[in-house]
Structure formats: structure tokens, C-alpha cells
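Q: What does the assembly look like in three dimensions?
Context provided by user:
Components: two
Sequences:
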Amino acid sequence: MASAPDTTSIPGYTIFREGDYDSVAATAMLPQGVPHPLDQLTIREIPDAAKIVRDHASPRTVKFNCITLREPRKAEYQAFRAGKTAAPDRRAFAIIIERETQQVAEVVVNLKTKKVEEWKAVKNVMPTLTLEDLDVMERIAREDARVIRACAEIGITDMSKVFLDAWAIGIDERWGFERRLQQGLAYYRASEFDNQYAHPLDFSVVADTETEEVLSVDVRTVNGERVPVPLKEHNYLPEFIGDGYIHDRLKPIDITQPQGVSFKVRGNELSWANYKMHIGFNYREGIVISDVRSHDMYEDRERTLFNRISVVEMVVPYGCPEKPHHKKHAFDVGEYGTGLMTNSLKLGCDCKGAIHYMDGVMSTSNGEAAVIKNAICIHEEDNGLLYKHTDYRDGTVISARDRKLIISQIITAANYEYGFYHTFTLDGTYKLEMKLTGMLNTYSLHETEQAAPYGTQVAPQITAHNHQHIFSPPDAVSADHAVGSPENPYGNAFLSKKTPLRTSLEGAADYCYETQRSWDIINPNRMNPIAKKPIGYKILNNNCPPLLAKPGSTVYNRAGFARKPLWITPYKDYELFPAGDYVCQSTGEENHPHNSTIVDWAKRNENIENTDIVCYLQFGLTHFPRTEDFPIMPAEPVSIMLRASNFYEKNPGLWVPPSAICVDTQSTNAFSSSCCAANAPVSSSRL
Amino acid sequence: MASAPDTTSIPGYTIFREGDYDSVAATAMLPQGVPHPLDQLTIREIPDAAKIVRDHASPRTVKFNCITLREPRKAEYQAFRAGKTAAPDRRAFAIIIERETQQVAEVVVNLKTKKVEEWKAVKNVMPTLTLEDLDVMERIAREDARVIRACAEIGITDMSKVFLDAWAIGIDERWGFERRLQQGLAYYRASEFDNQYAHPLDFSVVADTETEEVLSVDVRTVNGERVPVPLKEHNYLPEFIGDGYIHDRLKPIDITQPQGVSFKVRGNELSWANYKMHIGFNYREGIVISDVRSHDMYEDRERTLFNRISVVEMVVPYGCPEKPHHKKHAFDVGEYGTGLMTNSLKLGCDCKGAIHYMDGVMSTSNGEAAVIKNAICIHEEDNGLLYKHTDYRDGTVISARDRKLIISQIITAANYEYGFYHTFTLDGTYKLEMKLTGMLNTYSLHETEQAAPYGTQVAPQITAHNHQHIFSPPDAVSADHAVGSPENPYGNAFLSKKTPLRTSLEGAADYCYETQRSWDIINPNRMNPIAKKPIGYKILNNNCPPLLAKPGSTVYNRAGFARKPLWITPYKDYELFPAGDYVCQSTGEENHPHNSTIVDWAKRNENIENTDIVCYLQFGLTHFPRTEDFPIMPAEPVSIMLRASNFYEKNPGLWVPPSAICVDTQSTNAFSSSCCAANAPVSSSRL
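A: Here is the predicted structure of the complete assembly.
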């Protein structure tokens, strides 16, 4: 399956080259009209930006690491939203690597003026490894004499059966920022579609991404012996399961919306129920939900709930202390880009019901536009009871059904898959649910070794190590905001639960089970007139596993954000990624001039009270592998919620027509009445 | 709305009297064939049992508190299930109150021999308050001179507008077990369907249930003044919302199963996917799920997962220390009976999709059968991804969708509603989700009073107090059991997570957030041959709020079970209810001869290692009322999970045909392939 590299052919991507823009596919993907300031770059804007950057750099040549939207500064956006100014100029942000010098630079391009506005060289950092970058490993390793010898020693001579999953390198003291490193975890496949994770090999490879050199082949031995390949097959694809499927046991469930969906999409702006929001997407964070507003039926005005919601980082530290496993702690956002790894979704498989898809637009190393068709799924689901009450005296019943709006994406991070489900419900709640599935990262065991205590033997000779998944979504929160009122600036909010957190150091908060600690994001400038408490949203996070790596460990240093379930910082434009803008090969060094982290931001110890804040909420789970997780993992959910807390005057769902109204004044015999009028707003007997 | 008492007319119930048994309704409700030993008593068995009890008691006369199935002893049931013996004789269990003496007795009736097998007088206990019992309060209070005067003093003269929610009494030192007490919380309604919880009155009433006497009218004054009735209306019913509904904003979602449901029901035995189980129901616990088995596709045999699952107790302590609120801590299972309070469900309102309903059969105080039609809802739901993996190299995709089986009931406990959703999924997980909705318990505020810190002002003059909801489902667990193998006795299981819990005192365990404590229920006699760890199920409970009432408080004493998130005791027949068999007016006294609690059981400090155990899992939430919870609460979910942990050899869902298989060897352009074959088991390109 190895083939010559083609940097503009990436599975799942549609690449647009010069001259392609008038094709049917391109036309379908070009937005109509003027883009919204938060819209992704279009398939025309990306090559335009690339050309401006290339012209500016000439005669130096550049490799594009990313070309993505430069979001407007918040003040600019606010002025636009308030109707005070025209849309800010569209800008692109690029990270480039100069091909001649390997120098990394950050470039801001004004797409209107067609000018480079900023060009900033950044040192001692390594940008995200793109899919193109990661494609290097398998190709060069298969041809490397040391790899071929390492395989031959354990009886593998057909190199087309050797596969290498390319990972960012967690740590390797042998090289620094002079090399753009990646590591390869080696596997064997007995046949084309065989599950390689059943056949882990006992060596790993370090390569230089830019020079395409294998730097080291690290072979592990036990008592001086190589570890044999586990050859037993453990497969999950249809050609292997075949007769194992039971086809008539589950009958189909059909979910339809004969009158269409309840949400409206105009460009990338979405309205649904009482909500309005903008849906963005980029190579690094994937889905970005901005400017989330709600129409308050009691105050009859639009109120801002959240400025910006995305998953800005995640880390998966593995718990096995033996080499080479100490290098495994994937930062799937910062090191690989959740946008880049996004699946193109399929109706009935990934999502069910009436679906609206949006595409993801990214760039290639050559500066071409690369589109993932159907990267974002938007759909509604029934969500059971919104409310119900029965008067036990006479059987009077009222109930209404809740509804979910789900904005989702699924990514493949080598072996693992993650589903991201951003969910809004009619009671004003936002929930981020992650679903973890795909393949365990596996390793081979020598006959003298045991999987315990750092892993579980999921099949003979195969261990899967204990690990954690810690996700970090930030919420830029404006507890209240009247659009266009300069005297009440956007996002006047602080966080309090009896003990107010006043500075960003206090805002680095620990969870306390014994007191059932929770946090309210409140606006002290605006009291709920009824409750006489500040309006707010409550953070409900029961799933915040402590980082189990010890202080001083590599992952503790690199994943500073994962040390606390909550960090709060005052909002600053373009201060976003808590593990640093550059996560690959990062060390967690404090006060890095080009790569500050949330640990640095908190240490500034700035005021977070009654100002515009960003909350970084960590959540996740600790995964002790089970035999049930092999050969493919059942999806495991984990979630976090933000729930209105004295934000509205009353239940915000009372506008939803009830699905059941039952008045049964004649009889107390439930058999004699048919009092449920499904979907009927009001039964005639009640009006 | 007050009417003369008719003890055989209860809203939502169908009562069968002598001579009714040949009616159409009765025929529809009489099971065909021989009942399963765990089936509810039938509408014929209940009056049969009543007659046997009455004849035995004569000339004394009896009031029936309950007539319910006496489940067979476990050994008897096991022998029957193993095919070694015939079905054990059907037996009824009744709690009766002798009308002449108020003496309480427990009676066991053999329905085959038509004999009373046990008649045990029990002292210093009070049985559950039935709906018939609670009906007393409003009727007698409205006619009581002290109540009429208390109302007149605050300007209410039309007593038909005064409503009293009858509650069990949390504590009242003025009376002991010589009186069967209940308390009435008073409200006003301006019109027939007005929301009374917007008009709480400032007095409460204590009554004797048996003598139907008002014992005390406790009027609260603030600075010597009565508290005016909050008269502002806050309504949620259609006649009040009217034009407030927005009818076209949410389009219908239709969920259908054109080929029918995937589960099969034979009597009360259900099979679905790989699961088999029995669905029971009784007046106290509501749904009881027994004998849950799974067909293990790898071992090709049936394995027992859980012996018996139900919610055996819950407590709702309120946090306001002022009288009369210290009396509010409802035990909704033991004091009222979740079976008795069950709603008759309606398609499209309570449940959506293709539904199978089961009825609940209870008894009246006269010994008649009382049926709640559609008490239990059984349906399937799509559950998103079961698993997915994409090979990033070539875009090969496989995914399958998960499915839920949900067995649910909804109860009305005066102001509150609870939904109980027992859920099984294809990965072997059991989840109990509770949804809390209905009405806040409210109280009026004097103009000099503030709601804080013990409550929230949810509307002017109206406070809703902080409270907790703590649920206690026990799982009688048999970690593994080969049916009919006497050498491997049912339920050989103990609980361990590195630190084995060996005795029931050790089994009263605290949660520890810092170490992410969880518990595995394991069988040390049976190792998973792959993982080399004992087979087990993991308890996932992140929602176990500590009981916030102080040690020594009334509720701490009465709700001993709520002091710990987990208790484990060795299985004993008929030892089931952790707050005691008799919860009304209980004091939590230890070593009560007729009313032992889980605190007593744990103190026996018996072995729980490698024996047949019962796990009591406490979970719930702490509710600080919000303005959004008024005038009717949006449903709030809280759940607990039991997940297979090295119980199966591999992913137990691999028999599920995939919904997506995508192989795209020709092209890396996602646009050119249509590789999702929804519901097609295998795409032709892969075989």
C-alpha cells in the first residue's frame, strides 16, 4: 500500500488546484455573498493568501503548515455585530516553514489589501504535524536498512506488511529544536485488511519530518531477547466476522422529519429554537461555535450566552513507565490538529435522521485549499421529557418533550477515534459530550512479562496500557450582554461560588468532592431581580480526573493545563491554546518567548473579577483497558455541562407546546379517557 | 374539587371488584398460562389473598396496606431456573392494620394451599402511606375549624381554594407510634387550574391517618405577624400560556420501527439483543428487573449479570433549618411507594417510538386489585456510535450503531415527578438514569425575610429551599453463573479495587475523588483467561453527593443509607430496604426488633468476600433551586452505570452488523465514492 509521496493527495480531502475553481465541486463549495467575519477561509481565499505569502517571501520558498482564518479582534467583531462598523477585513493566518532554513514564521495576510501585515519569526518551537507530515514515516521507515533488519530478526521480510503509525514525539532527549521529529509505532499485518493492532512490533522509529531521515530505530529487548510478533489474528472487519453477524436481531429504527428540520442555516449562521450562533471550523480546533445568543422570552431581547466554544487541547498520557512508552502522551489538538484529522461523515452511519452537513476547508503544504466534505454534522434529536407534572388529585397532566441540537465531528487520531458532540437543549443547557472509540494502542509482551500493573492483557502477548484522556474546552463567557450597549461591555463576568475567584491564580481551581464544589460564572453587574442573586451559568463537571503523572514528569510539565479542572484568565485576543501555540516537542518551559502556556497566563495573576474572562474546563476519563475494548472499543461517553443558573427569570422552555395535556374531570378511571394529544398544542377541553 | 371519600376510587387506578373479573378490561389484564415465579400478583390473586387473610383474621377486621408478591427465596428460584424443581408455590405478602386495635401485622399467604403461612405482629413501626391514606389530609383539613380560622386570618374564606399536599412526617416529637401521622403543606389556588405552588400558605397541618383527626395546625409567624399569601400567578398550563406557545418553531421528529421492535416479550420475560430478563413491579419499588442474563457469543453460553435491580429507597432532605421545614425529608420509596405513585403513560408524551407497555397491579385497602394501565414503558432507542474506526491510510471505515433498551416508569410524588430509566446497551452496560421534573416545593416569605442562604427566591415572596435527592438502587450481583451447576453457586462475587473489601463494615465505602476511586464487583473464582484478572463489572458513580445533613441530625439518623455512596452486604432473603421495612415515622434507632436498617446489617460485619452479595449504590444530586426551575422544572438528569470490566473475552458487540463499511482503494477523493451502505451488513466490495 506504500506509494510515492504526493503532497496534494490526502485520503478524505478534496484538493483544489489552480483552474479547479470553476468545477462543479468548487462552485458547490464556494459560499454565496459576503462572508461572515467568522467564516472559514474559502477555497479561493486560501490560494490567494498563499500567493501573497509566497510573493512576500520570494526568493525564499515556503512550506505551509497552515493557512487559516485570522479571527477579528473581539473589539472589532463587537463593533461589527453592534452595527457600528462594516465587517472587518478578511485576514488569513499562516504558519510557514522556510524550506531553505527550516525557520518557522507566523504570517498575517490582509485578503482585502492583499498585503502581508505581520511576519514574525518564531524560534525554538515546532508547528503541528499535518497529515502530509505524518505520511513521511511509513514511507521512509519501510525502506530503511535498520528497520528492515529489525523486522528480519523477528522473521518479517515482506516490508509491505509492516505499518507504522506516526505520532508526535512526547520527549526524546537526543534531539532538540534542530530537528522536526516524529516517532513511528510499528505493526504487522498478515493480510491487507488485517488488524495491525493485534500484531504490535517491539521497536519504534524516530524520524526527521523535514529531511525525511530515519534518525533511530529503537529496538526493545527483554533479557537480551527480541519479543516475538503476536501472530494470532483479532479482526473486526466484515471479511473476518462474516457469519458472526446476526442480521435479524435488531430491527431498523427510522427517524424522520417529514416537515424538515427546525433549524435554519444561512451561510454558517444557525438559528434553532431560541438560539442563534455561528459555526466555524479550523485545522486545529475543528468545530468552533461563536457568538451563542438566546432570545429571552421574558425580557424579549437577545442575550449572549457564550462568546466562543471549542476544544482547544487534549492530552492522552499513557501510564507505562518503560521505554519507549514514556514518549506516548498525545496532544491531539495541538500536535495533530483535530480539524485535519476530521472524518467525512456519512448519513445513517455517523449521524441518523435529517442532517445538515458543513464542509471543513483547510490548506495543503503547497498552499492549496483542501476540503473535507461533510466535516460537520448538524441535527436534532428528541431528548425525552422537557418537563412533566401530574396533579395527583384529579390526574391533570401536562408534559412537553425536550429537543437537542447537536453539532458534531468525528476524528481519527491514528488508532483512536473521538466523537465531539456539542449539544444545546431547550432549557438553556450546553453540553459537550465526547465519545471515545476506535483501537487501543497496543504493545507486545515477552513471555516473561506481565501486562499488570500498567496495562491489561487484552489478547495473548498483547498489552494495552492504562491511560487518561483529558479534554480542555474553553468557554469565552459573557454572562450578559445587550448587543450594542457600550456602557455594558461584552462579557462582564466573574466566577464565584461563595468564595469568589478574583485573580487568575485563584482561578486555577481544584475540585473538592466532599463539598460538592461547583462553579458559577456570574455577572455581578446584573442581578436576577427575582432571585436577588447575580445572573449566571453553572459549570457541572463531575468528570475531571486528576492528572495522575507526578509533578516534574514530562507530561506534567508539558500538559500544565491538565493539572487543574478549571483555569480562568482575563480575555486577550489570540491567547487561546493552553499548552502553547506550538505543542510538538514542547517542554513546558515557563516564560518561553514564543510559546507561553496557561501556567504562564495564570502566573500573571491578573484580575478576573467583573471582567471579560475565558474559562478552561478540563474533563475526561482514566482508561484502564478491558478485554471488552479489543479488538475495537465500544464507544465510551464522557461529558461536561453548563446550565443556566438564575440567568432567566423563569423556565426558558415554557414556549414549547406541550405534547400531553390531560384533564379527566369525569372519571378517575384512566382507561376511559384518551387524553394525550400528541403534538397537539392545546387540547380543546382546556381552553 | 373535594369529594366524599371513596376508598375504591383512586385517580389513575382501575379497581376490580367482585364480579368484574369477566369484563373485557379484566380479561385483557389476566395473564395467560402459568405465571412466572417473579410475576406480579394477578387481579385474581389479590382478592384471593385478601379473602384468605380476612377469613384468618375473623372476627377481627383488617385494612390492607399492601398485598404484593412474596418473591420466592433465592434458593427456591435457583432450583426452578435450573430445571430441578417445579415453580415454587405462588405466595402473597400483605401488611395489614387491624381496624379494631391499629395493630400492624405481616402476613404470608400461600395461594396454592390457600393457607396463611405466617402472621407476624410488628410493633413500633408505621407502614407506607398509600394514596388512599394521603387522601385523608385535604378532606379533613378543609373542614377543620383551626384550619378555617388560619385561612380566614390571611383573607381566605373559600376553603375549596385551599389545597393540602399530604406528606409523611419527617419528625414530630409530639407524637410517637400511637398515632399514624401525616403532615399537610397548605396552598391556595385562585382558580381551578391555577398553580398552587405559586401561593404557598404559612401554616401546616398534622393529622392522624387512621382516626382522621386534625391533631395540630402549626401557624408560622414572623415578628408576630402572619405571612401574606403571595397572590401573583405563575402558571404553566395551556389556558394560561395560550398565545405564549410558539407552534411552528419545532418541526416534528417521527421515530418508527416499520419491522417492529427488536425485543420479544413472553408474559413478563423479555429478550433483546443478547439480554434476557424478567420485568416485575410492586407497590413499593415500582419496576424490579430480575435474573438479567446475557448470551456470551465467545463462550456460547448464557451468563448471569445481575440477580435483581430496583430502586429500594430515596431520600430528599431539605436544607432549611427553620420550623416546619425540618420535617421535610421525603423517603419517596419507603414512605409512599414508587409503585403506588406511578403514572399511567401515554404514547408520544412520556415515550416516543414503538412502545410496549406493561401494567402495574396493586391492591386497595379493601383488598381489591387496583391496576395502573401502562405503568411500565419498554422501548428501544438508537444510541449513536457503538464503535467506529477509520484507517487513515486509505480511508477504510467501519462503524456500527448502538442501541438502547429502556424500561421506564414515571412517578408523581405530590409536587415532584421522577422518571426512572433502566437502560441496557449493546456493549454490556447497564445504566440507571433518573430525570427530575415537576414542581419545586415552595414556601412563602415575609417581607422581612430573605430566601438565602437556605433557598432561592424563585418568584416574589416565594422561596424554594435547597435540597438533595439521593437514590439507592441495590444490585444483587452474581458476577458469573453457569445455570444449573451446583458446584459453582450463583453469585460468587466480591468487590475489589486493589484494596479488596472483605466485610460489610469495609463495604461501607467512601468515594475519593483524588484517587478517582471506583469499585469493581468481581468473582475471584473465575479469572478472565486473557486479562488474567478476575471477571467483573465496574461501578461508575460520579454522582454521589455526600449527605449534607450533620451527623446526629434527624435525617442523618433516619437515612443511614445516604451516609455512604456504597454499601455491600451478604445476600439474605427478604433483607432489602436499607432505611428499614417501615420508613414512616422511623427514627433510625439501631437494633430495632422489627425495623433493621443497612446500618445494622453492616455492623454485623459479615464476610462479603467470595460470597453472594448485594451492592447498595447511592447517587443523586444537590439541588440549589434556580429561577429557571419555576413555575415548572426542566427535567434534570442524573445517572449511575455498571460497565463490563474483563467480563467478556472481547468486545461483546461484534455480532452487530455494521452500518458503514467503506473501502476506497481507487481514489482518495471522498467525493467520488459513496461508501456508506446504511443498514447493509456487508458491502459487496469487501467480500
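Follow-up: Residues 45-57 of chain A form the longest helix (13 residues).
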